[in-house]
Amino acid sequence: MTAVVAEHDDHHDHHDHGPEKGVLRWLFTTNHKDIGTMYLVFSLIMFFVGGTMALIIRAELFEPGLQFVDPQFFNSMTTMHALVMVFGAVMPAFVGLANWMIPMMIGAPDMALPRMNNMSFWMLVAGILLMASTLFMEGGAPSAGWTFYPPLVLQTGNAMPFAVFAVHMLGVSSIMGAINVIATIFNMRAPGMTLMKMPLFVWTWLITAFLLIAIMPVFAGAVTMLLTDRFFDTSFFDAAGGGDPVLYQHIFWFFGHPEVYVMILPTFGVASTIIPVFARKPLFGYASMVYATGAIAFLSFIVWSHHMFTVGLPVAGELYFMYATMLIAIPTGVKIFNWTATMWKGAMTFETPMLFSIAFVVLFTLGGFTGLMMSLAPLDFQYHDSYFIVAHFHYTLVPASVFILMAAGYYWLPKWTGHMYNEKIGQLHFWLSAVSVNILFFPQHFLGLAGMPRRIPDYAIQFADWNMVSSIGAFMYGFSQLLFVYIVIDTIRGGTGEKVTDEVWEGASKHGLEWTVPSPAPYHTFSTPPEVIPTEHF
C-alpha cells in the first residue's frame, strides 16, 4: 500500500495545482480539504454562538426570579440555541470531517461532486445567517422551541417566514452534502476497497447520508404547512378549520427522531476509528458494527411517537412505540460492548483523543439508560417536558457528539497541519470538560424528577440549589472550551514544534489509508489510486 502511495506522491510533484491565493481560494474552492476546513471552522464559531445562548439561559436560571432577560427573549434563546447547535455546530462539524476524511479513507482524489460541495457549504452559511438575523426583527426571533409546535409558533412575529426559509436552505445544503457523500463512497473507492473493508466512519456516514435524504424533505414540508397556515388561511394544524396540531407533531418527529441519529451515527464512526488505534488492536466485531448501524438507522424511522406519549395516542400505539423504542437499545448495546471488547486487554495509551473517546463510551451509555427510562410510556408521563428530558438528550449530545468531535480534532489535527498539538493542555481541556459537563447536566436529572418543567425563565424555590450547581458547571464547561480554540490555533501555527510522521500515532497505518499520506496531507492526495491489500480490515 505504501509503495503505491509513494509513487502517487512523485506524480503529485509534477502536476501540482496548488490552491488559489487570498480570499478567492476559500470562496470558490472545490477542494475537499479546503471545504472540510471551512465547515469545521464555521461549526466551531457556531459552537461558541450557540454556547453563548446556552450561558444566557443558565445565567437566567442561576437563581429564582427574573434576573437578566424577559421571558419572550428567554424562549427565543432556548429556540435559537437548539437550532444553532443542531444545524450550525454539530451537523456541519461532521460534514467537515466527512469532506476531509472520506476521500482520504477510501483512496479517492476528491469528493465526487466538488462544485456542489462548495455550494452546499455557502448555502449552510446563508441559512444560518438568515436564521440568526431573526434575532433583530420586529417581534424577535422564533420563541416556540426548536420544534416549532403550532399553535404557539403561529404567534411568531415577522421572523416566521425568514425562519422557515432558513430551514429550507439548511435542508437543501444537507441533502446536497448527503448526495455527495453517497456518490463518493459508491463510485470512488480505491481498487480492493470493498464495502466491508471501509473504515467504520465511512460506513456510518454512508448510512447517515441516506437518513438525511429521507428526512429533510419531511421537515421542509412540515414548516411549509406552518407557513401556509399562518399566511394563506389553510387549516392543516388549526382545529377550527378541521385540522389537528397533533398532525404537525407526527410529521415533525418523523423528521426529528432520525435527525438525532444523524448527529450520533457519525459519532459512532469516529469512536470506532479512534479506539482501535489507541488500544493497538483491530476493532472487535467489525461486521456486527456495520449491521448495528444499519439497524439503528432503520429503527429510527419507526419510533417517532415516543416524543408524543402525552398527546393522547391510542393505547395500542403507545405500546407499539414503547417496545419499538426499547428495541433500539439492542444494536446500540452491541456497539458499546464492541468498543469495550476492543479496549479489553489492549496495549492502551491515554492520549487526549482516547480520553475523549473513553469518556464518550461511559457518558453516552449513561445517557442511553435515561433514554430507556423515558421509552416506558407510563413513566414518560412523569418525565415529559421536564428537565429530565433536557438532561437525557444533552448527555447523548454533549459528552457524545461534542466530545467525539473534540477527539476527532485532536486525532486528525496533526495529519491536517503537520504539527503536534500540546498534549498537556489537551489533557487539561479533557479533564475540565469531563468534570464540568457532569456538574452541568447531572443535577438536571434531579430537577426533572422533582418536577421542574423545561423552557421556563423562572422556577419555584425548591429547585434553586441544583439550578445553581448546574449553572456553575455550565460556565466552567463553556470557558474551558476556549482551551480547545487555543490548541487549534497554536497547532496550526506550529504547535509543539515537533514534526509529525506520516503515521502520527503508533500503528495507525494499519487502521486506515489516511495515515499513509504525508503530514500535512498534500493539497491533492491519491491522484493515482492506492491498492488496498485484500486481507486487511480497516
TrEMBL record:
Its annotated pathway reads:
Energy metabolism; oxidative phosphorylation
Per the UniProt entry, what are the Gene Ontology biological process annotations, in alphabetical order?
electron transport coupled proton transport; oxidative phosphorylation; respiratory electron transport chain
Per the record, what are the reactions this protein catalyses? 4 Fe(II)-[cytochrome c] + O2 + 8 H(+)(in) = 4 Fe(III)-[cytochrome c] + 2 H2O + 4 H(+)(out)
Q: Which GO terms describe its cellular component?
A: plasma membrane; respiratory chain complex IV
Query: What topology does it adopt in the membrane?
Result: Multi-pass membrane protein
- Determine the domain of life of the protein's source: Bacteria
Q: What keywords would UniProt list here?
A: Cell membrane, Copper, Electron transport, Heme, Iron, Membrane, Metal-binding, Respiratory chain, Translocase, Transmembrane, Transmembrane helix, Transport
Q: Where are the transmembrane segments?
A: 39-59, 79-100, 121-142, 162-188, 200-227, 260-279, 286-307, 319-341, 353-373, 393-413, 425-446, 466-489
What InterPro entries does this protein map onto?
Cyt_c_oxase-like_su1_dom, Cyt_c_oxase-like_su1_sf, Cyt_C_Oxase_1, Cyt_c_Oxase_su1_BS, Cyt_c_oxase_su1_dom, Cyt_c_oxidase_su1_bac
- List the PROSITE patterns hit by this protein, alphabetically: COX1 (PS50855), COX1_CUB (PS00077)
What does it do?
A: Cytochrome c oxidase is the component of the respiratory chain that catalyzes the reduction of oxygen to water. Subunits 1-3 form the functional core of the enzyme complex. CO I is the catalytic subunit of the enzyme. Electrons originating in cytochrome c are transferred via the copper A center of subunit 2 and heme A of subunit 1 to the bimetallic center formed by heme A3 and copper B.
Protein family: Belongs to the heme-copper respiratory oxidase family.
What protein name does the entry list?
Answer: Cytochrome c oxidase subunit 1
> Which species?
Methylomonas lenta
